[in-house]
Amino acid sequence: MLVFMVDSLKARIREKLLRQLNEDGAPDAEWDDPRQISVEEDLEALDAVAEDDPLVEELAARYLVP
Hints:
Blueprint: H1 9-24, H2 34-47, H3 54-63
Helix pairs in contact: 1-2, 1-3
């Protein structure tokens, strides 16, 4: 049996954002990392929209290498 995975743009962006957060490690309690906060906010926004929302394209342009 063959199983095909749908690799949507939204899923690829989500994977990239999660990988970035994982690579950054735990946040420092004494210092807010603006980049990490931005990635977390973008992940939350991505999770809140549909696959065809313009935000998906915007985040793809920001985080995925062409």
